[in-house]
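Please describe what follows:
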Amino acid sequence: MYSKFGVLQRTWEVFDQLPERSVVSWSSLIAGYAQSGQADVALNLYQTMKAEGVMPDSVTFITLLNAGSHVGLVEEGEKLFDEMFAVYILMPTLKHYTCMIDLFGRAGHFDKAGALLDKVPHSCHLPLFSSILGGGMLCLGDGHSSEQWSWMGSVMLRMCAWGIRMRSLGCKLRPIELRC
């Protein structure tokens, strides 16, 4: 509860007094630091959690991937995503894919975002496209290459092919009219 409101010192005190630390308590602590923009602390807590023998779950990975997305930790995010299945045999869900595509998009790694999009079992997923477009628009606004504009166009064409409109994603700006 304290971490939700950014009172991290009190969160740590409560956590430290717990007689037993479960994946839920660890993930809550990690989420508190991640949400306050302290991804490095969240990643260190994750390492400590593993060292204490607590196995991460799907929620732990979503929290870490989301934290990495907001501070541009691409390599760490890729390692976590791979570790999720290779070490813990956790199958990525659409939420994990969405976090990774958001991470790649925000960092301007459109090639990686596109390659991962092709691997998503259910590619017709609105939050996934919202992450792609959101990350892409952030980068495009920073004066990136025509290659990235082209990639964003191909994403919008995929959306048209699946019947997804920008309005479905909650976009307020009207995109260039695409003829589907």
Notes: Residues 137-141, 168-180 have pLDDT under 50 and may be disordered.
